[in-house]
From TrEMBL:
The chain crosses the membrane at residues 42-63, 75-94. It is found in: Membrane. This is DUF4149 domain-containing protein. It comes from Edaphobacter paludis. Its main location: membrane. The keyword Transmembrane applies. It comes from the Bacteria. The keyword Transmembrane helix applies. Residues 2-100 form the TMEM205-like domain. Keywords: Membrane, Transmembrane, Transmembrane helix.
Length: 162
């Protein structure tokens, strides 16, 4: 549970605190983008590790759970696998492509015209990244709600002691 809450909490902090403050307080959009991009890479690493830990621990609980509890564990695992897949896609495909576009634009993406192919591709990828991160957050909130449900109704989550 801690692994998932750390990931979801990090996503919330990133989206609603770090990114807006960086773009509001730093001297240029370029500097803010560097901070936000570097932070997102670290957040992805936290998510990929935490998501794997969560899946393994939930799998162990699933094996030891009575049948009524298994459905909840299966949903949690499925949502987490979706989160992991999207996060890996963003980390290893979208972010490197955005960095390549930034380099092609001479280092500062805001310094080139909107008609530049590098800028257009960057903006397309940025939009995709925002939508995917939002979807990961929604999935994570779903997992947290399932975790809260388990805590409220222990009879649905009985675990066999070995």
């Amino acid at each position: 549970m801690l692994a998932m809450v750390a990931w979801v909490g990090g996503l919330i902090f990133f989206a609603f605190v770090l990114a807006p403050v960086a773009f509001q307080k730093l001297a240029s959009p370029h500097e803010a983008g560097l901070v936000v991009g570097a932070t997102l890479r670290i957040l992805h690493e936290i998510g990929l590790i935490g998501g794997c830990v969560f899946c393994v621990s939930t799998g162990i609980l699933w094996l030891r759970a009575e049948v009524p509890a298994r459905a909840g564990f299966a949903v949690e695992t499925a949502l987490t696998l979706v989160m992991l897949a999207i996060t890996a896609y963003s980390q290893f495909s979208i972010l490197p492509a955005m960095e390549q576009d930034r380099v092609l634009a001479g280092g500062e993406i805001d310094g080139v015209a909107m008609t530049s192919p590098a800028r257009q591709d960057f903006e397309r990828l940025h939009s995709r990244s925002e939508r995917l991160e939002g979807f990961v957050l929604l999935c994570g909130l779903g997992v947290v709600l399932f975790l809260a449900r388990e805590a409220q109704w222990p009879e649905t989550g009985k675990i066999k002691l070995i």
